[in-house]
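Handoff note, outgoing to incoming analyst
You'll be picking up this chain. Sequence as last confirmed:
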Amino acid sequence: MKSIKPEELNKNVFTMIGKEWLLVTAEKDGRVNTMTASWGGLGVMWGKNVAFIVLRPQRYTKEFVDAGETFSLSVLGENYRKTLSYLGSVSGRNEDKVAKSGLTVEHEDGTPYFGEAETVLVCRKLYAQPYDPACFIDKSCEERWYPEKDYHTLYIAEIEKVLVR
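Most recent structure output, in case you need it:
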């Protein structure tokens, strides 16, 4: 893989996140866990190129993201759709889903990612905050997406490195 600057990324972020999906991957105590995500964003905050991700409190991957300073966002090709579906529907608490996925864990500056990825964003956490139900202006979003009151935590992370195939 080749390293490029975040400004050189020429993918449509709406397609990359919403259609191709991301694997949010982090490491804790020598173990790697991942989950599929189709919500998030890329932009500029505090003068830095950043990624925004959201994780629900019950997601096992959240423990891994919370434990370290970094995480990665891997974008795999369409031929990995079944793998992405599997990784988004099975918990790493119950089985070693990373091993079962058949994907290859690699590291960039100590941050795990998947060698099969077409694009990888290596991110360093800057900010985390649980959603506050009182802050929903459009109450229909809360009603539709949070019937169990399991509000996401928003993470803003600086994109330290972009790797492309």
